[in-house]
């Protein structure tokens, strides 16, 4: 609003109606786009403990699939981080079938891992640990 010198929200809304490019600029400004592996160390450590308890509590159950949805994942480093945590917990001897669904409102960000040259992107559809 300051950049176009709009003094009220109504002025800015009218400006948006008249300038369609501004709508896209506003949308891009609202997207955070901040992502990295294990970005919030404390949160990932807590999540790892929760996963360990969850898996331990269900060890005797006949569940062979675990599904996880990660929203607001940007380009996916958080999703990869969760896959790494589960691999550490379960190890290579597990027969658990893991599916990680990672989504974000920013279509360009989500397309980054899908179109990357890395073969590690297969977990986007299906991850077997």
Structural summary, described in words:
The chain has 129 residues and is mainly alpha-helical. It has one domain: Rossmann fold (3-Layer(aba) Sandwich). It is 47% helix and 11% strand. It contains five helices and three strands, in the order αααβαβαβ. It has helices spanning 9-18, 20-30, 41-57, 77-90, 107-114; strands spanning 65-70, 97-102, 127-128. The protein has a three-stranded mixed β-sheet with strand order 1-2-3, with helices on one face. α1 crosses α2 and α3 crosses α4. The longest helix is centred in the middle third of the chain and has 17 residues, at 41-57. The chain is elongated and about 60 Å long. It starts with 8 loop residues before the first helix and ends with a strand. The model is unreliable at 118-129 (pLDDT under 50).
Question: Strands, helices and their partners?
Answer:
Elements: H1 9-18, H2 20-30, H3 41-57, E1 65-70, H4 77-90, E2 97-102, H5 107-114, E3 127-128
Parallel strand pairs: 1-2
Antiparallel strand pairs: 2-3
Helix pairs in contact: 1-2, 3-4
Task: Spell out the helices and strands N to C.
Answer: HHHEHEHE
The general outline is elongated
Number of helices: 5
For the secondary structure, the number of strands is 3
Strands of the largest sheet, in order across it? 1-2-3
Indicate the mean pLDDT.
78
Largest sheet: 3 strands, mixed
The amount of helix comes to: 40-55%
Could you name the ranges where pLDDT drops below 50 across 5 or more consecutive residues? 118-129
- State the name of the first-level CATH class: Alpha Beta
Number of domains: 1
